[in-house]
Amino acid sequence: TDTVKDVKSLLKTMVLGLKTVVWCVSNYRRSSTSTPGGGATMTEEELRLVSRFLRWGVPCFAVYRDCLNPSVEEEKEVLDQFAGVFTVLDPHNFKDVFEGQIPALFGEILADSAMLTIPQHLLANA
C-alpha cells in the first residue's frame, strides 16, 4: 500500500540523514578536545541518543518484512545504510554505544535473519 511505501521512504531518508548528523556530532570537537587515542569524545547525552537510535531503530525495519511484497534487496540496502551510521564513530564511542545494545540486537537477529546485515557490515568496515 501507499502508506507502507511512504514509511519505507521516510525510514530510508532518516537513516541517511542521521549518518551525517552522527558523523558531525562525533567529530565537531576533534580539533579542540581529543582523547589520547586521537578520537573525539562524545558527551554522555550524545552517546545515550546514538545508543537509543540503535536500540529503537532496529525494530523499525520490521516494515520491510511485514508488508505484502517484501523486498530482500531493499531491506538489505537500508540495513547496510543503518549500520553505516555507526561506522563513523571512533572505537571508544562505538564501544560505548554498542555494549549495552548487543542483547537487543541479538534478539532482533534471531527474529529476522536479515538483521545479520548489521553486524556483517560492521565487521566488513572495522
Strand content: under 5%
Q: What structural class do the secondary elements suggest? A: mainly alpha
User: How many angstroms does the end-to-end distance come to?
Assistant: 38 Å
Low-confidence stretches: none
Main beta sheet:
none
Secondary-structure element pattern, one letter each:
HHHHHHH
Q: Helical residue percent?
A: 55-70%
**Mean residue pLDDT:** 87
CA-based gyration radius: 15 Å
Give the overall shape, derived from the CA principal axes: globular
Give the tally of β-strands. Answer: 0
Structure commentary:
The chain is mostly helical and 126 residues long. 67% of the residues lie in helices and 0% in strands. Helix 1 runs parallel beside helix 4 (72-86), helix 2 (44-57) packs across helix 5 (91-98) and helix 4 packs across helix 7. The longest helix has 26 residues, at 2-27. The chain is globular and about 45 Å long. The model has no long low-confidence stretch (mean pLDDT 87).
Short description:
The protein is an all-alpha fold. Helices cover 67% and strands 0% of the residues. The chain has helices at residues 2-27, 44-57, 62-65, 72-86, 91-98, 102-111, 117-124.
